[in-house]
Structure to design on (229 residues):
């Protein structure tokens, strides 16, 4: 199942903000196309010796660059604001679900693993809801606008330029699977380290009484080394 499916219920209340952010992304992409076009017109004005047009195109280019920067900031604020709200709602729902679990649930799941998921996993969801959604939408908008511009200039050259894309998509799919696998391993290692720390803190009286501090430090170092690998 796609990770976006359960995320949709958290994004739906903020669809107006996401729509506004998408419009700002579209404006950013359009202004990005205006800048090189104005640069081209400015070079042509220099070749003609028409310095009045050169100043005009330079002014439009500067305004477009400024507007693009402001539009980019506005789009990021929209998506990052939504991501923070999603994180708050997700943490609240997770806490409510955790309180509703019976006692055997905590026997099956280590405390350190739960702590790791409440910190690392929720942070990853926030990144997906913010930068992830923004990056996907921005890439889609930029590719569509760029493809339209390229087709208007040279359809045959555009076809040659997009030929490597299927191979690139296959490579990205392979790397995404590897990244997901290693991300799971990292979260598992973090859970083990968190569990060791939690046990050491909660049982420090027993550790001191039996002189187990050295063993606990050695165990923590081993888990930490495995986690860093």
């Amino acid at each position: 199942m796609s990770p976006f499916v359960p995320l949709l219920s958290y994004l739906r209340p903020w669809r107006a903000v996401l729509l506004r952010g998408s419009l700002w992304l579209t404006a950013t992409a359009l202004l990005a196309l205006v800048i090189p076009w104005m640069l081209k017109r400015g070079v042509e004005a220099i070749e003609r010796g028409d310095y009045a047009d050169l100043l005009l195109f330079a002014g439009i280019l500067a305004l477009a660059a400024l507007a693009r920067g402001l539009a980019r900031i506005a789009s990021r604020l929209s998506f990052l604001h939504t991501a923070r709200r999603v994180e708050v709602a997700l943490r609240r729902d997770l806490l409510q679900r955790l309180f509703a679990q019976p006692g055997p649930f905590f026997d099956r799941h280590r405390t350190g693993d739960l702590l790791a998921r409440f910190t690392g996993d929720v942070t990853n969801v926030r990144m997906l809801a913010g930068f992830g959604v923004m990056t996907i939408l921005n890439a889609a908008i930029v590719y569509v606008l760029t493809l339209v511009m390229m087709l208007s200039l040279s359809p045959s050259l555009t076809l040659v330029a997009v030929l490597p894309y299927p191979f690139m998509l296959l490579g990205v799919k392979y790397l995404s699977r590897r990244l997901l696998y290693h991300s799971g391993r990292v979260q598992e290692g973090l859970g083990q380290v968190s569990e060791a720390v939690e046990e050491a803190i909660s049982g420090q009286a027993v550790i001191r009484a039996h002189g187990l501090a050295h063993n606990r430090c050695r165990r923590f170092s081993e888990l930490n080394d495995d986690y860093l690998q």
The chain has a mean pLDDT of 83.
